[in-house]
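Hi there. Long-time user, first ticket. I'm pasting a complex I've been working with (about 446 residues overall). I'd like to know whether the download I got is complete or cut off, because the file seemed smaller than I expected. Thanks.
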Amino acid sequence: MSNSNKIQPRTLKGFRDFLPDAAIARESLMDTAREVYRSYGFVPIDTPVLEYLEVLTGKGGEESDKQMYRFQDGGGRDVGMRFDLTVPFARFCAQHIGQLGTPFKRYHIAPVWRAENTQRGRYREFMQCDFDTIGTESLNSDVETLLVIHDLFLALGFEGFQIRINNRKVLSGLLERLGLADKATPVLRAIDKLDKIGPEKVAEELTRSAGTTDEQNERVLALTSLQGERDQMLDELQKLVAGSETGELGVQELRGVLQMAKAAGVPDSRVRLDVSIARGLDYYTGTIFETFLDELPSIGSVCSGGRYDNLAEVYTKQRLPGVGASLGVDRLLAAMEELGRVDKRTSIADVFVPLFAADRMENYLGLCADLRKAGLRVELYPEAKKLGAQLKYADRRGFPLAVVVGDDEWEAQEAQIKLLASGETRKVPIKDLATALREALASLPA
RNA sequence: GUGGGUAUAGCUCAGUUGGUUAGAGCGCCGGUUUGUGGUACCGGAGGUCGGGGGUUCGAAUCCCCUUACCCACCCCA
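Hi, the file is complete. Here it is re-exported in full:
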């Protein structure tokens, strides 16, 4: 077949291949998230990629319906690919919460699909890492959500990040007082842009999309533009929503969450009360979170979430309040890539064993098997090439350690451990090799 | 979905007003005498210039279409 007859190998817009370095980075990020979630007792679940279309549509607002991949399956059923993990979770809860009992805490790490235009850190297929606590209205769960986010970013190696927090009730309270309760969606969307386009433009948009008066705009902006010291802000907010039961409750909740987070050891510098964050998604009703990296705020929020009153109301009569958040794995990865924080390792094993003495294959196989039994990840080179070439391979793949055993060493029942970063070597008896390797690994810089 | 930009080797990019066999750096493979990689030196492979069509004696270079990526809007992880 001539070259021009070949099918062009290519991927769809917004869909990507992952080469080992990217796949290793992504998996290790997900492993970290998994460990943090588990450390708080969240349990894993999974749901299907495809759902009946009626299960998915009309849940996240118009925009998500537009961006959903949908088609008819072979049996003529209208189906959709999940757009996020929250809506399938709502269906899941409506179906199974009776067996699970409440409160129920789950995490779910899986890809989702959105047919929107791509951009830096925005793809059509991307991984989300959600965790939610459902079946409780306790503010303690809101605090726990914040603590999980905080632990998560620390575990991922970030020091400089900021969790912005707000409460929808504060905004709702104000809207109620201004007689704008039915315009909540356009108003919140406009407010969400405050950081980006400034107060004048927000006012314009408010008037245009929600038909607000100048006075209403002023009141909205007075509230959302609040800045400064936290307790002062809370006091100001209190005044601005005074008279609205919802609003006052919202301020009280904010105060509570912030206070407990502080008591739990989250430094003030990493939690910012930001009255301008609103979140586009319709289902949030209480606390809302967004997380920004200090080094790259422009990539947007890398972990967002909040509290919702009634997740599964369209599927069941049972009321299921909850709170949770979603880590944007691929967006975070794009950010880390840009910041040069992605490990370029293309090997996953810790120990490289060159096939040095070609006629001792059985010895090498036995040695590797023993090391693996001892819990090490070991790669044996498949060909008896020149030692230098084999070490070069190991070096390029980023192996931390090599174990060189040639005829002399086999005779003496010794092995040479080589630290590939420094070139330093040392000899140990083969019977002590596993222990020595573990020690060597432990003493390496992370 | 709308508007703007970009597309040349695996990667980052040169390529003069359209003119012969399209270049560099890095990377990759091999070598610098047989048991030690990352540096140095030598050599090599690799591109129908994103794809298709058109203008021209002649197109990487000009025009049209298409696809992907980047930026903005929108929305959001």
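A couple of notes from our side: The mean pLDDT of chain A is 88. Residues 20-39 of chain A form the longest helix (20 residues).
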